[in-house]
Amino acid sequence: MRLWGPGRGLGVVVISAVALLLVAALGLALALILTQIRGQTLEDQSLTTAAPDLQSAEHKASQMSPTVPLVRGQMVSSTVSPHSATTPPSETRCGGVLNDSVGSFSSPNHPGSYPPNSLCVWVIRVPAPYLVQIRVSSLAVEGPSPCLFDWLGVQEQTEQSTVVTRFCGNIAPPTVNSNSSTVWVTFRSDASITGNGFAAQYRAVLPRHKSCTREEFMCDGGRCLLPVSMCDGHPNCNDQQDEANCSRKHKECGGQTFGPYGSLASPNHPKPYPHQQLCTWHISVDKGHVITLSFRNFSLETQDVCEFDYVEVHDSSNAEAGRLLGRFCGTTIPPDLTSSGSHMTVVFVADEGVADSGFSATYQAVFVTDILGGCGVSKGTCEPDQFACGSGECFQQQWQCDGWNDCPDGADETGCSNSTYPPFTSSCEIIEVEMCQGLSYNLTSFPNIWLSIVDQREAATLLQQYRVLMELVCFRPLQRLVCGMFLPQCSPHGGVLQPCRSVCSSAEQQCSQALDLFSFSWPFNCHLLPDSQDPLECSEP
């Protein structure tokens, strides 16, 4: 089942991405609950202690001589101290105080699996004016960002602020150059899945001797970035140096294309494309024509939300203006795409990791004719196994008379007397969920094809567990995004509308400060939503 409206080609991707949105909501709820916990564990002390209290807390940790019993389970020897102490057999010692100028530490049992319910805290202290530099040589910790389950955290306190960074997953993070002579490192695991943990080394460095590894990039006076973060179109450095001189980094590809037909392909196709590519094709045809783009071969790195290697197609003369027709990755050939005017932009991005055979595509100019006083495309512009909507967009023939509107004008469901599917007649209904009152619309429609929610009662039950979000300062923009997904706006033309990209971007911008307080990063890719202000294309709750 597919939704009516823009972004149809991203239907499967949106469903996967919504799962990340739910994780984000749960993370915010947990964050709010965590703020109510006071003084119950050493973790609370290490993550909430103000700068003047750091030395006091460190003194207490050192008096634990010199390890901290923090983990329940079997006995695990500490990587910090050879000293022994008498403890109940039900407790595990890990963490401690590290005062040497060079040292190492690791998760319990490393390189074996760490135990569940672990809480380890290391205090690394070097003499001023030296600063602490940490390199994590291996990492295998459960969970993707924002690291809600198991995580390795690094906290430093300076005169200006407290900085907390969390790591998880299976990719070792870049070098951490702190701005403090005292750093707290926390390792936390939950009661379920475990991994091989981590191994890390630290050393004391002078401020002028901050460094990164050979493959990393340093900016902002000591911040290290992995190669995948370079020239990815998203500045990570305050001075944006990671996005500078990118034309030298990428192999020449893309360009300006003008004419009634043509072709484009990834570099080296059908051989594997090089790493770190950024190719942009600007396609233009004569006025009075639109552009139909057809992919012939397609094989990129597979990933749910297409963040690493992907192709984007924009309905405009550049990638910044106009709506996004689709972002694609994996091995499924994208559908044919038709522009609304005489310009189209195709962008190909590849990161430092996996490379595949890439893609090839052709385009053709299609003459626009007036049909019944409106704009349409002459028949015969689609493939033999496709049909054309009044707007000129091409869809697979099996999508005709399937009970769901794919064409904006509903042409695919017209004259379907022999159809085995009843026409889609889902009616609009008033929104009754308390959490989603006060939106710019008050009508929704079910079933919800994105989240597979049957009716509004089921949506209300799911949203009930997220009522705690109503206490957040940034609840209003977050409400517009969450409710736009759970209770999408009912369109008078049939079907429902996705939230516009601006709704997601606003929530990300206004909630980022609250997320940063708990070391969470925004986990939803706003680029999956249509970039438009047309009320017929998307919704602005």
Provide a descriptive summary of the structure in words.
- By secondary structure, the protein is α+β, with helices and mostly antiparallel strands.
- Helix 6 crosses helix 7 (501-517).
- The radius of gyration is 27 Å and the shape is globular.
- The longest helix has 24 residues, at 11-34.
- It folds into three domains: 15-30 and 426-528, Frizzled cysteine-rich domain, CATH 1.10.2000; 57-230, Jelly Rolls (Sandwich); 258-365, Jelly Rolls, CATH 2.60.120.290.
- 15% of the residues lie in helices and 28% in strands.
- Strand 12 (217-219) and strand 13 (223-225) form a beta hairpin.
- The chain is built from seven helices and 29 strands.
- It is found in: Cell membrane.
- It is a single-pass membrane protein.
- Disulfide bonds join 212-224, 219-237, 231-246, 382-394, 389-407, 401-416.
- Evaluate the radius of gyration: 27 Å
Helix content: 10-25%
Main β-sheet description: 5 strands, mixed
Q: Provide the spatial order of strands within the biggest beta sheet.
A: 3-5-10-7-8
In CATH, what is the homologous superfamily of the largest domain?
Answer: Spermadhesin, CUB domain
Summarize the structure.
The longest helix is centred in the first third of the chain and has 24 residues. Helices cover 15% and strands 28% of the residues.
Task: List strands and helices in order, with pairings.
Elements: H1 11-34, H2 42-48, H3 54-62, E1 69-72, E2 91-93, E3 95-98, E4 102-106, E5 119-125, E6 131-140, E7 151-157, E8 162-167, E9 176-177, E10 182-188, E11 197-205, E12 217-219, E13 223-225, H4 246-249, E14 254-258, E15 261-265, E16 277-284, E17 289-299, E18 310-314, E19 324-328, E20 337-338, E21 343-350, E22 358-371, E23 374-377, E24 386-388, E25 394-396, E26 429-430, E27 443-444, H5 456-464, H6 475-486, E28 489-490, E29 496-497, H7 501-517
Parallel strand pairs: 3-5, 14-16
Antiparallel strand pairs: 1-2, 4-11, 5-10, 6-9, 6-11, 7-8, 7-10, 12-13, 15-22, 16-21, 17-20, 17-22, 18-19, 18-21, 22-23, 24-25, 26-27, 28-29
